[in-house]
């Protein structure tokens, strides 16, 4: 299950994670975000133990969104060892996101 992270715990949960992290930047009002949400949840189950799947509500956590230059949502960042190693903007099918996860792992 995807973990909700926020401005206060982002560094501790995401940047200091010992395994790669998928971060889904989203908002309640965003239609494409709602389309990609089930895919993100599926990935959290498919890669359990190998990938930490997190979500950041950009309306409630503007500092993290600003730090990573998030201008469009959904934006999915792939972070490994505290560094962004890949990025996807917009809704995407599970197969393309899974391919990016596989490349990060």
Rounded mean pLDDT is 97
Q: Low-confidence parts, pLDDT < 50 over ≥5 residues? A: none
Structural class comes to alpha/beta
Q: What best-fitting shape do the alpha-carbon axes yield?
A: globular
Strand content: 25-35%
Q: Mind telling me the C-alpha Rg?
A: 12 Å
Tally of alpha and pi helices: 4
How many β strands by DSSP? Answer: 5
Spatial gap, N to C terminus: 19 Å
Element pattern in H and E: EHEHEHEEH
**Mind describing the biggest β-sheet?**
5 strands, mixed
Strand order of the largest sheet: 1-3-2-4-5
Oligomer: single chain
Helical residues, percent: 25-40%
Explain what the structure shows.
The protein is built from 4 helices and 5 strands; from the N terminus they run βαβαβαββα. It is globular, with a radius of gyration of 12 Å. Strand 4 and strand 5 form a beta hairpin. The two termini are 19 Å apart. The protein is of the alpha/beta class. A 5-stranded mixed β-sheet has the order 1-3-2-4-5.
Quick recap:
It is built from 4 helices and 5 strands; from the N terminus they run βαβαβαββα.
Blueprint (SSEs and pairs):
Elements: E1 3-4, H1 10-15, E2 21-26, H2 31-46, E3 52-57, H3 62-67, E4 75-80, E5 83-89, H4 94-104
Parallel strand pairs: 1-3, 2-3
Antiparallel strand pairs: 2-4, 4-5
Give descriptors for this structure:
globular, five-stranded mixed β-sheet, 105 residues, 26% strand, 37% helix, alpha/beta
């Amino acid at each position: 299950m995807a973990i909700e992270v926020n401005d206060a715990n982002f560094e501790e949960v995401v940047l200091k994670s010992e395994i790669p992290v998928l971060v889904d930047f989203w908002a309640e009002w965003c239609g494409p975000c709602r389309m990609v949400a089930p895919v993100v949840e599926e990935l959290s189950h498919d890669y359990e133990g190998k990938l930490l799947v997190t979500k950041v509500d950009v309306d409630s956590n503007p500092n993290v969104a600003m730090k990573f230059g998030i201008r469009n949502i959904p934006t999915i960042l792939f972070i490994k060892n505290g560094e962004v190693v890949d990025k996807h903007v917009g809704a995407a099918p599970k197969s393309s996101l899974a391919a990016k996860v596989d490349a990060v792992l």
